Amino acid sequence: MTPQEDDLRDFFSELRAEDEQTAAPLFTGLPRRKPRIKIWQLATPLGAAATILLLFLLYRPSPDATAATSPTNVLVISLEASEDPGTESLLSITDPVSTWESPSASLIADF
Amino acid sequence: MQAHHEDAFRWASQCCRYNHHDAEEVLQMTYLKIAEGKARFNERSAFKTWLFAVIRYTALDYLKKRVRFAALDQLPVLAEEQDSGESTLDYRRLLARLPEQQQRVLLLTFYHDMSLSEVADVMELHIGTVRTHYSRGKDALRTLLKKESV
């Protein structure tokens, strides 16, 4: 701005003085708004949930398999302890080689 | 932000042709844009220059929508509001007789003490264009002032 512009400077300072008669609204800080959830921010949790659901659907046990293992078809085998373990019988059976006869001995024609 | 609040309100008011209700609305919208990160200060210019540029295009958008949706019976009221203000020399009315770009350039230089390059940033105009508006605006305002004083 040059000294020749004093007339304009006066004009605008008068204008400013006039404007200052109107008070500006009080500054109350920047307004706060709830942050909006964007669709891409939901991608990770939604993706994880979809994967879990998919895995469950693919690898869930079939109804037939569950029927086969149902408690009604279970065969219960219980072992009872006895005084005689039964191993003696194996030792008592004596099958000497001298009396042994081969199963196909009858086929030999011994006339 | 608080340091520039008053100047920001004056500029918003000037962008809204001294309609203070509109100016408050525009200023709130500007602050909301800043708070939400829609308008970000990238430190390429002074903070005030950037803030004034945001206010200017927020006011432009706001006024466009307002004109589009304003009921016909509200228009004369707006016109009356613009003409309000009583003083021996009506500075606002006198300034309003200049073309809009010239008004803004003169307001930013003389009223808000900005350099021409800062004005170019706020107005998003080439510096050469700003110089033209500045020069023509000064001449036009002087002519009007002379007419008023006669």
Order of helices and strands of chain B: HHHHHHHH
Helix content of chain A: 25-40%
Strand content of chain B: under 5%
Q: Structural class given helices, strands, pairing of chain A?
A: mainly alpha
The termini of chain A sit apart by 148 Å
> In terms of structural class, how would the helical and strand content of chain B be classed?
mainly alpha
What integer value in Å does the Rg of chain B equal?
16 Å
Number of helices of chain A: 4
Q: What low-confidence regions of chain A span 5 or more consecutive residues with pLDDT below 50?
A: none
How much helical structure, as a percent, in the residues of chain B?
Answer: over 70%
Q: Shape of chain B from CA axes?
A: globular
Number of strands of chain A: 0
Please tally the helical runs of chain B, counting DSSP H or I stretches of 4 or more residues: 8
Q: Which percent band covers the strand fraction of chain A? A: under 5%
Overall, the morphology of chain A is rod-shaped
What would you say this structure looks like, in words?
- The complex is a heterodimer of chains A (111) and B (150).
- By secondary structure, chain A is mainly alpha-helical.
- Helix content of chain A is 38%, strand content 0%.
- Chain A has helices spanning 6-19, 43-59, 63-68, 88-92.
- Chain A is rod-shaped and about 155 Å long.
- With 150 residues, chain B is mainly alpha-helical.
- Chain B folds into 2 domains: 1-84, Rna Polymerase Sigma Factor, Chain: A, CATH 1.10.1740; 87-150, Orthogonal Bundle (Arc Repressor Mutant, subunit A), CATH 1.10.10.10.
- Chain B has 8 helices and no strands.
- In chain B, α1 (5-15) runs parallel beside α3 (47-69).
- Chain B is globular and about 50 Å long.
- Chain B starts with a helix and ends with a helix.
- The chains are: A mainly alpha (111), B mainly alpha (150).
- At the A-B interface, α1 of A face α1, α2, α5, α6 and α8 of B.
